[in-house]
Specification:
Shape: globular
Strand order of the largest sheet: 1-2-3
Distance between the termini: 55 Å
Largest sheet: 3 strands, parallel
Oligomer: single chain
Number of helices: 6
Order of helices and strands: EHEHEHEHEHH
């Protein structure tokens, strides 16, 4: 039976850190569902559909990666997919504290639910999507921290904005 996991996140936008985690996750799992969270409480820069397309292009159509979107609780989405394992990246101690709480709540909601944590690669431990959005919005160069297709999307999104 193939080992598959869900790698959830907002991916707004996808970073090289996310991409690295996908690639490294595929060394542990036979397949990943990269699940774009659709959180109505947040105002994303890119729509869920745009984020999904950016991920698909960045993974070059790898058949082991399925890109999807979900609303609501991750455990409900996981059950609907027939999966009980989630892959999460950790950058710092603060990430661990937050992820530890979420993992335990998820297990409370679904006793079969497992969280697998993977440390972010040293090249990307400081990269967060929110930081990338901010730097790109001011015209900063984020070419080293996002895939080329995401860089193009960021440039297009911010090309008409006045710079302070």
């Amino acid at each position: 039976m193939p080992r598959r996991a869900i790698y959830p996140g907002s991916f707004d936008p996808l970073t090289n850190g996310h991409l690295s985690l996908i690639q490294r996750g595929l060394k542990v799992f036979d397949g990943l569902v990269v699940a774009v969270a659709n959180n109505p409480a947040k105002a994303p820069l890119f729509s869920a559909e745009e984020r999904m397309e950016m991920i698909r292009k960045a993974v070059n159509g790898d058949p082991r990666v399925r890109v999807d979107t979900f609303d609501g609780l991750l455990v409900d989405y996981a059950k609907a997919q027939g999966l009980h394992t989630v892959l999460r990246g950790l950058r710092a101690v603060s990430d661990f504290e937050y992820e530890f709480q979420i993992a335990n709540m998820n297990r409370k909601l679904d006793p079969e639910f497992e969280s697998v944590f993977m440390m972010t690669g040293e090249d990307y431990f400081y990269v967060a999507s929110s930081l990338v959005r901010e730097v790109a919005s001011f015209g900063g160069d984020v070419s080293g921290v996002v895939p080329a297709n995401v860089l193009a999307a960021l440039r297009a999104r911010f090309s008409g904005k006045a710079r302070p």
